[in-house]
Specification:
This protein is mostly helical. α1 runs parallel beside α6 and α2 runs antiparallel to α6. The longest helix has 31 residues.
Length: 249
C-alpha cells in the first residue's frame, strides 16, 4: 500500500496548502470534541483515560520506529529516536500515570505547561509532517493522532486541576526541561543528530530566521524559548481559564 510506503500516497503539497488546512482543521475539531466529550468526567476517570493514552502513544511510537527501520531508505537518528520536545509527552504521561511524588508532579507539569503548547503548535504548523510528506502518509497520520492526544491531555488536565497551578511551578518545570534539553544538545553533538531542532533549524523553516538573527546562540535561544516560552504561554492560558471559572461562579 502506498500509504505505508516511504513516499506515501499523493503529492507533497507542503505548508499553507489544502493539506495543511485539512490537517490543522480536523486536528482542532478532534481536540475540541475530545474535551467536550470528557469535560464532565471526574479526575479519577480522566486519569484512567490518560493511562490508556499512555499505552496508545507508546504503541504508536514503537510502530513508528519499526516503520522507519523497515521502509525508510536512509534512516537517521532524527527519524526514530523519541527525544523531540513533543516526545516528552510519552514520558510525561507515563510518569503521571504510574509515578509517585515528585515523578508524578514532573509528569503533570510537563503535560500542562509544555506539551499542550507543543501539541497545539504542531497541529497548527505541521512543518515536519505535511511540510515534507503527503497528507496520506502513515507518518502524517501518526503525527496527527499523537499531537491531538498531546494537546487534549494538556487541556483536560488544566480544566480538572485549575486550583493546582502556582507561579512557583516554573522552578521545577524549568530545571527539569532545561536538563533534558542540555542532555539532548550533548547527544546531538556526539552523534551528529538534531533532535528537538535544538542544534539547527532542520525542516522547521521559521527557525531559520532565529538562526540568522542569533547565529551561534541559536541553541540557547531555542532551549529557553521551548522551556520558558511554553511555561509562560500555558500559565497565561491557565489564568484565563481561572477568570472564566470565577465569572461563572
Amino acid at each position: 500500500m502506498k500509504f505505508f510506503s516511504e513516499s506515501g500516497y499523493g503529492p507533497i503539497r507542503g505548508m499553507f496548502s489544502i493539506d495543511h488546512l485539512i490537517f490543522s482543521l480536523t486536528g482542532i475539531i478532534a481536540i475540541f470534541m475530545l474535551v467536550f466529550l470528557t469535560h464532565k468526567k471526574n479526575k479519577e476517570q480522566i486519569d484512567k483515560y490518560i493511562k490508556y493514552i499512555f499505552i496508545i502513544v507508546v504503541v504508536l511510537e514503537i510502530l513508528k520506529i519499526i516503520w522507519n527501520f523497515v521502509y525508510r531508505t536512509n534512516i537517521e537518528l532524527n527519524n526514530w529516536v523519541p527525544l523531540y520536545f513533543c516526545s516528552l509527552f510519552i514520558y510525561a504521561s507515563g510518569m503521571y500515570s504510574y509515578g509517585e511524588g515528585i515523578i508524578k508532579k514532573i509528569g503533570f507539569l510537563w503535560m500542562t505547561y509544555g506539551q499542550i503548547i507543543g501539541g497545539l503548535v504542531f497541529i497548527l504548523f505541521p512543518s515536519s509532517s505535511v511540510g515534507i510528506q503527503p497528507l496520506f502518509h502513515v507518518l502524517t497520520f501518526h503525527s496527527w493522532i499523537y499531537h491531538v492526544l498531546t494537546a487534549y491531555v494538556g487541556i483536560i488536565l488544566i480544566f480538572k486541576n485549575l486550583d493546582s497551578f502556582k507561579s512557583h511551578d516554573i522552578k521545577l518545570y524549568t530545571i527539569t526541561i532545561l536538563s533534558v534539553e542540555l542532555f539532548v544538545y550533548i547527544f546531538n553533538v556526539i552523534f551528529d543528530s538534531n533532535l528537538m531542532f535544538i542544534n539547527s533549524p532542520g525542516v522547521v523553516e521559521p527557525l531559520n530566521y532565529v538562526q540568522n538573527i542569533f547565529g551561534s546562540f541559536y541553541p540557547l535561544i531555542i532551549g529557553i524559548s521551548q522551556c520558558i516560552g511554553s511555561f509562560l504561554i500555558s500559565f497565561g492560558i491557565i489564568k484565563f481559564f481561572k477568570k472564566i471559572q470565577s465569572v461563572k461562579i
